[in-house]
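Re: Re: token formats

Sure, here are both.
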Amino acid sequence: MNKILYALLTLLAFTSCANSFNIQGSSNVSSLDGRKLYLKTDQSDSLIDLDSCDVVHGQFAFHGTVDSTKIAQIFMDDINLQFPVVIEKGDITMKLDNTQQRVSGTPLNDKLNYFWTKFIQLRNQYAEIDHEESAAIMNGQDEETVNAQLIKKALGVYDKGDKLFTKFITENFNNILGPWCFLTRISYETTPNAYPVWMNDYMYSNAINQLPSWIEYIMSKATDTFKQNTQIKEFYKNFQQAQKEMNGMVDPAGLADAAGTTPNAAVAPPTPAQMAGDSIPK
């Protein structure tokens, strides 16, 4: 009896260890020292805390166990630090500095770090174009001419982003990063004020016009694993319904039918806030 009990306890301990994660973080951001950080993820359309810790002399740590791979975000109180991390078994290292964010140590986090670094670099290029526009106007150049030239430059950055998202998603169809990245792009590009003010209307319109064909392209290439993801299935169902309504092929969901009944309105597509804790940087 004691041998059986010992064997069961050993098995439970091994299982717990196999599914445990350990995050060791460091930061040189002085405003974080002494503050409490929270590791949050989505569960049933609400945020839950996986763990919390204090930043002490630039060091912080999160620990816990997972029943499945998740993507989480680091929060300081209610402020999302825009630092996504894959919660998977293993030892994870995070670095949160004034000049860079880095997460590494497990296979999916290494992949996520590559993508997120490239994405932030592209976002910074929009900010640089914005500064270039301000400087040109202050130097007396014609605003309309300057903006027309810089919009072309911004479209070049957009094209790089399109290639980055497409490549990363297709390479990660069969793990959590593919669906997360797919919905992250859609959420970002359907945010009305995602770009600097003077270029926002043009860039937003460009994104909205291109997204439908991009979505269909991704879905045409997607594996069954990607297509069967619960959030992808829900999003794509709603997307197809919206496209049919726009093309006049079906009546809008939520309108009363001939019998006087009201069909269920389409559920809003999931966002990265529901997948990873909050929205991505603007």
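Second one below.
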Amino acid sequence: MDGPNNGIVLYHYSFSPYARRVIWYLALRGIDYAECKQAPVLPRPDLKALGINYRRIPLLAIGRDVYCDSRLILRKLEELFPDGALGASNPEEKAIQKFLEIWAVESGVFNRASQLIPSSMPLLNDPKFVKDREDLTSRPWSKEGIDANRPEALAAIRSGFQFLESTLLADGRDWVLKTDRPTLADIEAIWTFDWLNGLKGALPRDLISAKQYPKVFAWIERFNGVLQKAKAQAPKPTSLKGDVAAQRIFNASFAEKDLGIDQADPLGLRQGALVEIYPIDSGSRHHDTGHLIGLSQDEAVLHIGSEEKGIRVHYPRTGFRIKTLTVGGESKL
């Protein structure tokens, strides 16, 4: 890609489990990129400066295209940087990789994992953090509520460890797809369990440890060993202030050119329709508005801002809603 650091700017904060997926991927690929560190809670003026209301982390810009949601980000990095991609190569492996993505993100495995955050965590004494997470998840974050949810969440996560131990890793393979290095399938499967393993107090070690799940914990240790070596060899990310990151994006070229509207899409939307897009699972109170310039089975794209200096913001279809807006009582369709 054109521009410094491959034209990539990653917006994230250090302990975001979703952002770690992207950081791992970039490190394992050795892809040079820039980063713009964000606060773990709102407001995030660096993103407001781009015209984006979407509140979840991470976001990744490649040129003047900005990608929301780690699922879409990983897919785009595979497509736009194909040399040395980590994705599966045949239909059966692609199915495993996709099912692992769905299992972790969409079926609720990570949602259950997040309910194992210890109620003794210092951040939970910060009213600003608690209020922010209640806005994000639309559920209470009181210590009493966390403790009440813990047994069910623990049962679900224990089942997840057992699934990995008794199926994908049961034959002693090093990596999910029997490869000689970690692939995207490993990232999709491991990120939730690695995050919990590193979160002090999240897992009761009498129930979930290397004693009960030796193959899973050996896999986690093996993955982190490869990751640390990859990080040591990869280019160190360039750190950008918000205003510098914004100017770099606004002054760049678009990374993708061939955008269009799927005429068979059930929504029946047209090129240039004024719409709003927002996630429906978390962060659903934060809507982006713009003109629809791309719509496929997997992705929706808005042009946000002026024609000359605007950006294109990309969203996955799964877990997101698109609503037509009206101006002066008339739809812009």
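DSSP finds ten helices and twelve strands in the chain. Residues 91-233 form a domain with the Glutathione S-transferase Yfyf (Class Pi); Chain A, domain 2 fold (CATH 1.20.1050.10).
- S.
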